[in-house]
Amino acid sequence: MISDFYVECLDCGHQESYNPSKPTCSNCQGTWRRACYDYASVAADLPFLLRQRPLSLWRYRELLPIRSPNPDLSLGEGGTPLIHAINLGLMLGCPNLYIKDERQGPTASFKDRQAAVTITALKEAGISEMVVASTGNVAIAYSAYAARASIKLWAFLTSLVPVAKMREVALYGTQVIKVTASYDQAKQVAAEFARQKGLYLDQGARTVASVEAMKTIAFEIAEQLGEICYKTSLMDSPRLKSPDWYLQSVSGGMGPLGVTKGFNELYQMGMVDEIPRYGIIQAEGCSPMVQAWKQGLDVAEPVRSPRTNIATLATGDPGRTYTLLNHTIQQTGGAFESVTDEEAFRAMHFLAKMEGISVEPAAAVAFAGLVKLIRMGVIHSKDTVVVNCTGHTTPTDETVLGSGWARDVVLPTQTMTQAPEEGLLAALSRVTLDRYPKIAIIDDNPDVRRLICRILQAQGNYTILEAVNGKEAIEIARNQQPDLIILDLMMPEMDGFGVIDALQAKPETASIPVIVVTAKELTVEEKKRLKGTIQTLMQKGDFMNDEFMDEVHALIR
Fold it and tell me: Is the pTM of this model over 0.90?
């Protein structure tokens, strides 16, 4: 069953049938329209239909502007997993943290949804040639689906787009036009080309099918969270559930525009009980939405000269998209926030090292924004948070890794006199000559040890030693001579005070710096006992503060 649908003009309210070859309102020529459906009919039938369908984008076909879905054009889009970020949540003090892993789409970004639905709509309308301007992922996704649908694609890419992405676009047979200018200027060139040639032009957030495609992210999240809550006995029966927060990094903002529409439709149909708050994150060097929001403006002032190395987020003029998102956030709550390139690169590191998820810088911006909003107290520890991991890893630039990220092993040649085994052992031994600083973590709680270990591994290269009680701590200190000890005070057999006394009693261990991390509120006498014997006293739960890693770096230099 495909429900009736139509498009409604946001300017004059005129309603008419949807035809992608007619991108403007026939009444006022407005370019901003939205798709509307028979929501009462869909709400009555969709829950039953969903039980019979696989998890993919097309399971929601009654809420998409397609009259006859074409399975021959599908590449397996949608149905991406919702991953519980256990380690990252532990570090951030946000245990209900989930990652919507859009890297697992056909071309490894959330833009596959946009391309799948839009190309299907164009094919249905008999359109055989189109023009798109892109900062990378859109062009890649459109190229794949256009190739499958035999639609000729012209892609106008700013010269700042990574070369690897340009090559991937070209691989599909797309005609690549490299524009040495900003992305906003590239869009203008693409629009003029399409006008002169009489070709269909993708208009980003003004493209009805593209926005509709993005709302399927909301549908999937609601289903997946509902299933998680049901399995963990938080709900009596299976039911769709919205998160407290949905976060996404944005360039033009079409993704969140679709996601907000999706949650609104679910709420309108009575399929969820509440609408989430939204975190819209931009790169600081090109953040017109954030600047407008913080100034209380309803229209964003364009950024004419973006200053960010994350070129895929360098849309300087979000136009009406910001105004629409701003209205949503005013009604439902949420925030616009920006992060620096450096914060995004740091997020790439800790996400890969803590969750095994490698992302491109544009996706990492959302995770850096997550850290910032938690630190600001905007997102609370009990909130259920979903972050859209929008895109795959690109070839990693050296500015992200820095120096010293690899070690060389030079195997001996056959002309060398030593035996091959001896030469190999010698080569391998040189790998460990430059030893990493050794840090001993002493705590009887395995979750705390794991958390501290993850934080350290995400921030640098360290050899980690662990002990579960005071006796093991003393043994490690004497035998391994760590560069730093991170010590809990409350432990069985021998507490932290006893460990400190034992370390001070031996010349070979007395100089090892100690950071005490404790959940205990110390008495005046206990503080006096520690004075002069440790470097720093920190409370558990303070790991989000930069002070912890600053202290570690200072003590092991």
Answer: no
- Name the domain boundary from 162, 183, 206: 206
Spatial separation of the C-alpha atoms in residues 299 and 293, rounded to whole Å? 9
Distance between CA 438 and CA 440 in Å, rounded? 7
Q: Angle formed by the axes of helices 546-555 and 446-459, to 10°?
A: 70
| CATH code of the domain containing 541 | 3.40.50.2300
Q: In what order do the strands lie in the sheet with 514-518?
A: 463-467, 438-442, 484-487, 514-518, 536-539
CA gap 322, 287 in Å, rounded: 11
Burial of 209 (0-12, 13-18, 19+ CB in 10 A): buried
Domain enclosing residue 479, as ranges:
438-555
Report which DSSP code applies to 282.
E
CA distance 152 to 197: 13
Give the separation between CA 9 and CA 17, rounded to whole angstroms.
Answer: 11
Buried b (16+ CB within 10 A) or exposed e, 404-438: eeeeeeeeeeeeeeeeeeebeeeeeeeeeeeeebb
| Helices of type H across 402-445 | 420-431
Measured between alpha carbons, how far is residue 474 from residues 260, 402, 502, 509 in Å? 55, 36, 7, 9
CB 211 within 8 A of CB 253: no
Give the CATH number, domain containing residue 129: 3.40.50.1100
Residues 301 and 358 in one domain: yes
DSSP state of 412: P
Q: Mind listing the pLDDT tens digit for each residue in 325-345?
A: 999 999 999 999 999 999 999
Give the three-state DSSP class for 153.
strand
CA atoms lying within 13 Å on the CB side of residue 337: 23
pLDDT band at 93 (very low <50, low <70, confident <90, very high): confident
pLDDT tens-place string over residues 149-203: 999 999 999 988 888 889 999 999 999 999 998 888 999 999 999 999 999 999 9
Task: Give me the sheet containing 175-179, strands edge to edge.
Answer: 175-179, 152-158, 129-134, 200-201
pLDDT at 267 over 90: yes
C-alpha dist (Å) from residue 239 to 50, 82, 83, 260, 390: 12, 16, 19, 19, 26
pLDDT digits (tens, 9 = 90+) for 341-368: 999 999 998 899 889 999 999 999 999 9
Q: How far is CA 490 from CA 114, 152, 445, 497, 533, in A?
A: 54, 68, 10, 9, 17
Residue 296: inside a domain? yes
If asked whether residues 307 and 162 sit together in one domain, one would say no
Using CB atoms within 10 Å of the CB of residue 44, give its burial: 0 to 12 exposed, 13 to 18 middle, 19+ buried: exposed
Structure tokens of 39? 């929501």
